[in-house]
Amino acid sequence: MGHRITSVLSALNIARSTYYQWKNWHPSQQETRRNALKTAIKAVYNTNRGIYGYRRIAAFLRFILNTEVGDRLVWELMNEMSLKSRMVRKSYKKPTTTTDTP
C-alpha cells in the first residue's frame, strides 16, 4: 500500500522539487491582504445592494474601517469578482406644457 513518493512522481512525470515546492507553499502577505479586502469589498457591496461603485467602496473602507486602500486596487478586485455597481437613474418627470389657444 505504501508507495515511495519518487516512484509516484516519476509515474506522473512530475519533478520532485515541484512536489516539495507545492507541499511547502504558503500564501504571501499580499495575497492574504487581497483576500481580506475581497471579503470586505463584497460585504460593503452586498450591504448597499450593489449600488456603490469602486470609488465609494474605497472611501467607505478608508474612512469607516480605517483600511489603507486605493481606488485602483478596489477596482481591480471588483473586476476579479465580477462586481459591477447598478446604475440607479434619478426619476424624471416630464414637464407639462400648456399651449395658449385663442
TrEMBL record:
Q: Where is the signal peptide, in residue numbers?
A: none
Name any one Pfam family assigned in the record: HTH_21
Task: List each copy of the HTH-like domain by range.
Answer: 33-90
> Coiled-coil regions in this chain?
none
InterPro entries in alphabetical order: HTH-like_dom (IPR025948), Transposase_IS3/IS150/IS904 (IPR050900)
State the name under which the record lists this protein: HTH-like domain-containing protein
Q: What is the lineage of its organism?
A: Bacteria, Bacillati, Bacillota, Bacilli, Lactobacillales
